[in-house]
Amino acid sequence: MCTVVIDVAELATDGSRGSRLLAVRDEDPQRAWDSLGEWWPERYPGVTGIRDRRAGGAWLAADQSSRRLAVLLNRADVLDLPEDQVLTRGTLALESVAGRSPVAPLRMHGFNLLEVGPDAARVLSWDGESLTETPVPTGVHMIAHDGLDDPATARIARWLPEFRAHAARSDDWDAEWIELLAASAALDPTDDAAIIRDNRPHGYPTQSLLYCLAAVGHSGLDVRQTTLPTPAHWSRADD
Questions:
Q1: Alpha-carbon span 41 to 1, nearest angstrom
Q2: pLDDT (tens digit, 0 to 9) for every residue of the chain, 239 residues total?
Q3: Which long-range contacts does 176-182 make (Cβ < 8 Å, 24+ apart)?
Q4: Rounded CA gap, 149 and 160, in Å?
Q5: Which of 1, 59, 128, 234 has a CB 3.0–4.6 Å from the CB of 78, allowing a cystine?
């Protein structure tokens, strides 16, 4: 139940593109995790990410040397396997930035995996039966637990026009997008259109815990994390 906003730039004169993104993480506050860091030095040297302690994987991972970033979002599936045979999705972002994207069939529950490189971005979606690829076109887009820019997702229908009106092209794009995120928090966190969310009334234990801002391009890769002081709630300390 996470949310990502991404702006893929137009082709530059040097042939490069570049992307800027905002990723909000929803997770059970009782599930232990570690802030952005190099938690996998032996298997994924140089990779930074936000680590899930229970499974040892990552929700978001980034590799400065290859200029790759990946974010994992859960989605519904029709996987027909006993739970003791299901593999964790936590390796997906780490393997992705190492240059190894998932290949079907997968013994995993459903996901959207956003892969961002210096020249392009795409979403790989697994529903338990098939793995599909959706290139992310130039411009501002949103992805959550369904398809890219899916108008049936209430928060996308509500906030995508706002983010498109504030495309991440200026030097202070991050401040503008944080202001939009703060504005979205005027909604009750249980509102289906909220980005800062409390999903418990919808049958899930997850709440918004943090957000990351990232810029990916040939000139480098930058990721910054901000943790919400209280799960599912914005406060002036976040501004």
A1: 29
A2: 799 999 999 866 566 679 999 999 999 999 999 999 999 999 999 999 999 999 999 999 999 999 999 999 999 999 999 999 999 999 999 999 999 999 999 999 999 999 999 999 999 999 999 999 999 999 999 999 999 999 999 999 999 999 999 999 899 999 999 999 999 999 999 999 999 999 999 999 999 999 999 999 999 999 999 999 999 999 754 54
A3: 177/5, 177/22, 177/213, 178/213, 178/238, 178/239, 181/22, 181/24, 181/211, 181/234, 182/234, 182/238, 182/239
A4: 8
A5: 128
DSSP class of 55: T
Provide the 8-state DSSP code for 91: T
What would the DSSP string read from start to end of 105-169? Answer: S-SS--EEEEEE-SS-EEEEEE-SS-EEEEE--SEEEEESSSSTT-TTSHHHHHHHHHHHTT-TT
Tokens of 164: 């498109």
Task: Report CA-CA distances (Å) from 231 to 1, 22, 46, 179, 189.
Answer: 14, 18, 30, 18, 10
Cα dihedral 236, 149, 121, 61, rounded to 10, equals 40
For residues 136 and 107, is the Cβ–Cβ distance under 8 A? no
Q: Taking the complete model, does pTM exceed 0.85, yes or no?
A: yes
Which residues contact residue 128 at a Cβ distance below 8 angstroms, ignoring those fewer than 6 apart? Answer: 77, 78, 79, 80, 109, 110
Q: Are 216 and 117 in contact (CB under 8 A)?
A: yes
Q: Supply the Cα-derived Rg of the chain in whole angstroms.
A: 17
